[in-house]
Amino acid sequence: MTDEVIRVRLPDRNKGEMFAVVESMMGAGHIKVKCEDGKERLARIPGKMRKKIWIREGDIVIIVPWSFQDERADVIWRYTNPQVEWLERKGLLKF
């Protein structure tokens, strides 16, 4: 297999973004995620993402915790399987 160039969006730590794993689907555009800081949060899938991207249990996503309510967050990115494999090879996923 050749070394193909994969462009992967990484969390912007300055904006509070972090990796999370989808644990369960709650319905109405909400999911329960397990974040890399060890907390479980209720995350909201924005409408523009809900219409274009299908999120399933076990997916790796980037979330941004709400500034005024830390146990809630917004999903801003979902990784595809090749991107997750690349992140694991580089040692960036710490779950």
TrEMBL record:
The keyword rRNA processing does not apply. Residues 6-80 form the S1-like domain. The keyword Protein biosynthesis applies. InterPro entries: NA-bd_OB-fold, RNA-binding_domain_S1_IF1, TIF_eIF-1A, TIF_eIF-1A_CS. Keywords: Initiation factor, Protein biosynthesis. SUPFAM superfamilies: Nucleic acid-binding proteins (SSF50249). It holds the Pfam family eIF-1a. One of its GO terms (molecular function) is RNA binding. Belongs to the eIF-1A family. NCBIfam families: eIF-1A (TIGR00523), PRK04012.1-3 (NF003084), PRK04012.1-5 (NF003085). Seems to be required for maximal rate of protein biosynthesis. Enhances ribosome dissociation into subunits and stabilizes the binding of the initiator Met-tRNA(I) to 40 S ribosomal subunits. This is Translation initiation factor 1A. It comes from Archaeoglobus veneficus (strain DSM 11195 / SNP6). The gene is eif1a.
